[in-house]
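Practice problem 4.
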């Protein structure tokens, strides 16, 4: 299977690309820099991605984030910084993938989860919930046996360590990556996987 991994230069995206490659899939690493480029805030860039890689069987998006911003003190622009890329960009990516992938293809997006309220995370929580709702609802409209799913990771261990925090509170990137692989290889539609979540 040929899989485009958007955001493959990041912690989660890199782990997903490695896991898929180890499982024998052909991985196309896409990011804002590098040989295969895409910017989720630019729909022409997303269109160009599928022109560059017209024969992909699946798309995984690990690229987008919604930065923390104070609820009251941030400007409207600062507060909604995650809207163009993480929410609308992933929706645009999914819609184009559903037009361009072959029958039975797979699209996996990234939302996210906060185990408890975190200062500055109100808009990020809104975006994550919106993505989860989009995936569950839009999957029912996906034509030709195409599948749309999402992974909703919490804190990733390696990211916490990189920020100088206790990595023990996070889920290892390899475990998060396996959740993406299982969705790509599986049969589920409209699923939201939550790696590291309490059973």
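Answer key:
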């Amino acid at each position: 299977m040929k899989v485009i991994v958007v955001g493959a230069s990041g912690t989660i995206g890199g782990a997903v690309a490695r896991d898929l490659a180890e499982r024998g899939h052909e991985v196309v690493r896409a990011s804002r820099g590098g040989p295969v480029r895409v910017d989720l805030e630019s729909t022409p860039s997303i269109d160009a991605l599928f022109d560059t890689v017209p024969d992909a069987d699946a798309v995984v998006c690990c690229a987008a984030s919604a930065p923390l911003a104070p609820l009251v003190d941030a400007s409207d622009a600062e507060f909604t910084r995650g809207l163009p890329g993480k929410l609308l960009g992933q929706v645009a990516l999914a819609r184009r993938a559903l037009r361009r992938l072959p029958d039975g293809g797979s699209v996996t997006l990234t939302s996210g989860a906060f185990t408890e309220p975190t200062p500055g995370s109100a808009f990020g929580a809104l975006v994550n919930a919106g993505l989860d709702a989009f995936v569950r609802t839009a999957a029912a409209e996906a034509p030709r046996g195409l599948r749309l799913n999402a992974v909703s990771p919490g804190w990733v261990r390696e990211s916490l360590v990189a920020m100088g925090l206790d990595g023990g509170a996070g889920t290892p990137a390899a475990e998060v990556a396996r959740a993406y692989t299982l969705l790509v290889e599986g049969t589920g539609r409209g699923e939201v996987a939550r790696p590291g979540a309490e059973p």
